[in-house]
Fold this protein.
Amino acid sequence: MVPPPEDDERLLREALAGVKPLGAGRAERMTPAPAFKREIVSEDAEVLAELSDLVSGHGAFSLTETDEYVEGARVGLDPRLVSQLRRGEFSIQAHLDLHGMTQPDARAALTAFIVESVRKGRRAVLVVHGRGLRSPGGQAVLKHAAAQWLSHGVAGGYVLAFATARPSDGGAGAVYVLLRRERRRAPFDVLEGASRRS
């Protein structure tokens, strides 16, 4: 046999028995003020801010790291560029070998190399960090450190993406690095002007 349904109104009265309402003035004092004022931002403004971060090199980085593979890309970067980089489709214009360097020396060398490469207009470079086979414990210390340096700090401001190189270019011991283009152009001379018609 099913018990009769409870009277909701009666249950509510029983639950609230002995509860006294607060005075109107007291209720106003207990209402917390908002911690900050929220401003409504348009979607266009958010997209422009993200695009500005991407172009300026200050946007967030998405990282993927395993023992054998490392990849990073600016959030919002066209995934086709990352795929092309991963496949080694960009022409490598310079390379840097960090073998045998201490971490502070390797970081300084990598930062100088990235900055110089951007100033020279290079688009893709190769950084050889090694596999860590001769390191204590066989750990690839420079590999994981290089991933952090390429995604943060001074060097990170110039990097759009990086990915473990193909075996023919060093495999797990090297990364391809895609650099952002320098916005400033070198001065140029006008060698010939427009001819004047008489």
Q: What stands out?
A: The first helix runs from residue 8 to 15.
